[in-house]
Design goal:
Distance between the termini: 30 Å
Structural class: alpha+beta
Oligomer: single chain
Number of domains: 1
Helix content: 25-40%
Number of helices: 4
Shape: globular
Radius of gyration: 13 Å
CATH topology: Aspartate Aminotransferase, domain 1
Largest sheet: 6 strands, antiparallel
Strand content: 25-35%
Number of strands: 6
Length: 115
């Protein structure tokens, strides 16, 4: 997946926003809560994973626990361009769903997400 494809997909999710933080990191959020981030070059991707995905991705060596966020089940994928676009899209959509699901119901309703 390219940096542009990731950007377009992430911003296409309900209530998603984009910001540059920590100097140069591209951060995607929902309800002001981060669900994905890349470096400025778009080579590395961090996102929140399910418990099972965290275990599978880190144990297989496809990802490593994200610095500072591993306890929250965040992983970092290196060499984003070599990853299957459909798989990355699924990871990002799942991360968005996990983060959005923790938002207050009022915020979810305002963003047009949730049940």
């Amino acid at each position: 997946m390219t940096k542009g494809e990731l950007h377009d997909f992430a911003l296409g999710l309900p209530g998603a926003t984009f910001d540059v933080k920590w100097g140069a990191d591209h951060v995607y959020s929902v309800g002001a809560k981060m669900f994905a981030a890349t470096d400025i070059a778009g080579e590395h991707l961090g996102f929140k994973a399910t418990d099972i995905a965290f275990e599978v991705l880190t144990e297989s060596g496809r990802a490593e626990p994200s610095k500072y966020l591993a306890r929250a089940k965040w992983v970092t994928i290196h060499d984003l361009a070599s990853q299957d676009a459909a798989e990355v899209a699924d990871w990002i959509a799942t991360s968005h769903r996990l983060v959005a699901g923790k938002l207050p119901k009022k915020t979810q309703a305002a963003l047009g997400i949730g049940a």
